[in-house]
Write a structure and sequence with these properties.
It is a single chain. This protein is of the alpha+beta class and 367 residues long. The protein contains 13 helices and 12 strands. Strands 1, 2, 3, 4, 5, 6, 7, 8, 9 and 10 form a 10-stranded mixed beta sheet that branches. A two-stranded antiparallel ribbon has the order 11-12. Helix 1 (71-83) runs parallel beside helix 2, helix 2 crosses helix 3 and helix 7 (211-217) packs across helix 8. It is globular. The two termini are 33 Å apart.
Amino acid sequence: MQPPVTTLSVPAPAKLNLCLKITGRRDDGYHLLQSLFQLLDYGDTLHFSAHPSPEINLTPPFAGVAPADNLIVRAARALQEATGCRMGADIHCDKILPMGGGIGGGSSNAATTLLALNQLWDTRLSIDTLAEIGLSLGADVPIFVRGRTAWAEGVGELLCPVEMPQHWYLVIHPGVSVGTREIFSHQQLTRNSRPIRIAAFLEQGAGNDCENVVKNLYPEVKNALDWLTQFAPAQLTGTGSCVFARFADEASAREVFAKRPASYSGFVARGVNRSPSHTALNLNYPVLLGRRQAARQRVLIPSFGGSNPPAPAITCRSRTSLRILHSRQNLPSGRVRTEKRFDQLCNSWDKERQRRSPQGKNRPQPV
């Protein structure tokens, strides 16, 4: 019998928003979004060592962030509270992703902590439960918990896994940090973009509705976009300060990276469809999301999104319960429009499952 594993080293990958469309704003302030979350093979690395006492120790300290407020510590505490586990951990973070860059560093750290400690502490929570815990920490945490490149719709709660080509990307950080709340609350932010289909995005792209606001508020970001556009079409990722461009191969991306101004940092990375953290932990969750799984995973995510603000703890276990919740809590009419889109997505997912199962076998395949 092998002794239990007490240490783990797990990557916490970055992400890019290959597009970010804001298609509306509900009466309660929630924004309706469309986005493609592309996972990368580059990011921070977290080292975990479990111990029998309940203390959570994080090294090194993050500049400007109190230990109790760090998403890594908060994720560990949340897992303890959800399971009653009395074990603790020493956690060391090799931090290379910039804060406020729009590449998901904090959210990815939190998700990796949940996934790793779920194994080390043998708490045996499902991926759905871990995603729900992650949602209480930040709106982007579930995408990293589920570990798939995915298309998001609604207010961010509808995730449809997408198999993307594994392109090479150059990501540039211009040396400033951008706050998510600041951008989503700005009066000049576009909130009425016309919705697009996944196929249309894959054919012609879609851009980022937050880009103009960020460029106006942060000239450094505008300058970085202008510089990178000399070599390839460039755009903003998320609501942060990082900009990126796609290249045909790694060598081409690194050639441009070597020419960057001295004030810029960044990295070259490849897009992946499965999270490196899932690979490191030998997690294997099916890709497609079926009708029942989609209904169970339906949640509300706040309009300000991003990796820092928490999401409200509202989960609907079925379409019926969703409609009951709508009537009892007087949710705005935007919910009805989102529900219609939810039905359309479920139907398309069902058709895809049937296509992949010609004998009609029903294989539940959650994200």
